[in-house]
Design goal:
With 268 residues, the chain is α/β, with parallel strands linked by helices. It is built from nine helices and ten strands.
Length: 268
């Protein structure tokens, strides 16, 4: 199993494929590299693809500190240099999307572009910030495990089947609670608009629905050339034989339809 080691930190990663631009996938809070498995397998036929486990998650070391977003972005920058990934398109989901933006701000010569897929709050209004602050406090409290499980279960989309739901909940609730809380603390402390303003590479913020914290009106003043998109899920229909067709996700970017993808379910 491939690992890259720096001082007391060991990061698990996987690579496959050939072709430019290389793609690097960054998973979300309390997830691991497997959450990007469909994309990893699909794009390896035409691109060099890399996925890895953030510190504290999956097969990577679970250290006591280093879970602020600048630190996590620095981990990724070091990993890319260590394994020879140059000028990738960095695709991050949820917390991973925030890390990708921070990476572009701190290491502007590293990524060629960034896609933030349903990122956490980049420019949250005060009430949203208070929700995450309260969540961090609850994770640190005596009922932290129950609080996390409820948060994860409530966040699963309607297209996830029973097997997916079980795997997602099991994976996300296996990360040490201290790491989970530290990740949310890092999210709360992050200066997203400052990172956004320093991001000079092409950036797409892709949302699955309306999101006040990442509304274009709150982001464009800091990065006027920002691209914004939304996925719209259309419920599957039935074929003539009665079998269900897969759901279709249309991708709209800057108000234009780019294409569609079919899926039996979704991964966070």
């Amino acid at each position: 199993m491939p690992y890259a080691r720096r001082d007391d930190l060991s990061l698990y990663y996987e690579q496959a494929g050939r072709g430019d631009p290389p793609l690097v996938f960054v998973h979300g809070w309390c997830c691991d590299h497997s959450f990007f498995k469909p994309q990893f397998e699909y794009f390896q036929s035409s691109h060099a693809v890399t996925t890895f486990d953030l510190r504290g998650c999956g097969g990577s070391d679970r250290l006591e500190d280093g879970y602020d977003l600048p630190g996590l972005a620095d981990d990724l920058a070091w990993l890319c240099a260590e394994i020879g990934v140059s000028r990738p398109v960095v695709i991050g989901h949820s917390l991973g999307g925030m890390i990708a933006i921070e990476l572009a701000a701190r290491h502007p010569s590293l990524p060629s572009a960034v896609i933030a897929d349903d990122p956490g709050p980049i420019n949250p209004p005060p009430e949203i910030g208070r929700i995450y602050e309260g969540f961090a406090m609850e994770l640190e409290g005596p009922d932290g495990e129950a609080v996390r499980r409820t948060w994860v279960e409530d966040g699963l989309g309607p297209t996830a089947d029973a097997e997916q739901r079980h795997r997602i909940v099991k994976t996300m609730c296996s990360v040490p609670l201290s790491v989970a809380a530290a990740g949310i603390r890092g999210l709360v402390a992050w200066n997203g608009v400052a990172a956004l303003a320093l991001c000079t590479v092409p950036l797409l913020v892709l949302s699955s629905g309306p999101d006040e914290s990442n509304d274009p009106a709150r982001l464009l003043p800091f990065k006027p050339d920002l691209h914004v998109g939304m996925t719209v899920t259309l419920e599957g229909t039935r074929a003539k034989d009665g079998s269900p067709r897969a759901n279709t996700r249309n991708v709209m970017v800057d108000g234009k339809k780019l294409g569609a993808a079919s899926s039996e379910g979704t991964n966070p």
